[in-house]
Amino acid sequence: MTKVVTILGARPQFIKAGSVSREFAKYDNFKEIIVHTGQHYDANMSDVFFDEMKIPKPDYFLGIGGKSHGAMTGQMIEKIEEVLLNEKPDWVLVYGDTNSTLAGAIAASKLHIKVAHIEAGLRSFNMKMPEEVNRILTDRISSILFCPTQTAIDNLQSEGVDKWNTQVELSGDVMQDGAIFYRDLAEKPPGLTLDREFILSTIHRAENTDSEKRLTAIVESLNEIAEQIAVVLPLHPRTKIKLEALSVKLSSKVTLIDPVGYLNMVWLIDNCKLVMTDSGGLQKEAFFFEKPCITLRDETEWVELVINNFNTLVGADKAAIISAFKEHTFSNDFSIDLYGNGFASNNIANALINYEK
Ligand code: UDP
């Protein structure tokens, strides 16, 4: 029996677990215990994903949200340690790059419990991003690194992974598994009237929301674009607070909606004309659903999308955003396999069950 404690805390982690936990449930010799740290706790940022994606209800809910980075990470380490002492798993599984990821990895490694990291090896090379710090530290103390792309493996190799006594797997991207599985279950968000082409936009990354200058430029750009095409913006709670304090307001032509569940989100991605986002996950989902993507960041971890011209990076520069919207010609040959074509969760389950060291 392989026993895994999975640490979840934030929306993108629930979405990834939707595919991986479904795969784990297929194996009799596999037991998964789910810990929800509470980093995201609103119904529309958390519960909806457990319900819709049929993720098993968390065995532990730690209730640690809405705190500073240090307080959140510290309290999570302490509480996760208690869970691990109680459960004594073979593995702690962590996803991505949030404070919950790092806290899970630290708590496990101090107890000499092996850490498996899904979405390992990604780098933005911007150490001011809290996510970059979380990724680098988590990778360094993991026993298995599940890399979604060859670029991620190359990044780890240039950091010296060969000397870390760590297994590196090119697993593919679990978000592609989800995109394939949930596509047929997609549902139009209730109450949303859309009778013409639209752009789907999301903004939540701290580098944009916490900078008045960048957020203002993004708002002004969306306002200008909304004069020409409908724009739908599911609003992240952090962005909502920051927008309220901003002197420039979003025009009434931008359709603001509350954060939506994954089935509604898949519908929006599948039906939009273009994605404009600073989200990591949404950049890939745009590709899975064959939509061009304008990324409101200065760098991306998903460089293969930019290299292959499915995505263009415009930062938070109004002229660059408008020019990308009006003039950029994107590739529309989506036949290239960049993310493993939907077998990532299966690869991950097999690697954990067959691990020998
Ligand atoms: N997402 C969602 N509802 C929303 C906005 C985003 O289900 O209202 C999904 C999106 O499709 C993607 C994931 O949330 O699968 C991305 O999460 P987020 O942008 O919060 O984080 P990131 O990927 O940047 O870490």
UniProtKB/TrEMBL annotation:
CDD domains in the cross-refs: GTB_UDP-GlcNAc_2-Epimerase
UniProt KW Isomerase keyword: yes
Keywords, sorted A to Z: Isomerase
GO MF term list: UDP-N-acetylglucosamine 2-epimerase activity
Keyword Isomerase: yes
Domain UDP-N-acetylglucosamine 2-epimerase: 23-352
UniProt xrefs under SUPFAM superfamilies: UDP-Glycosyltransferase/glycogen phosphorylase
EC number from the UniProt entry: 5.1.3.14
Record NCBIfam families: wecB
Family indicated by similarity: Belongs to the UDP-N-acetylglucosamine 2-epimerase family.
Entry-linked PANTHER family: UDP-N-ACETYLGLUCOSAMINE 2-EPIMERASE
Protein name (database record): UDP-N-acetylglucosamine 2-epimerase (Non-hydrolyzing)
Origin species: Shewanella aestuarii
Gene this protein is translated from: wecB
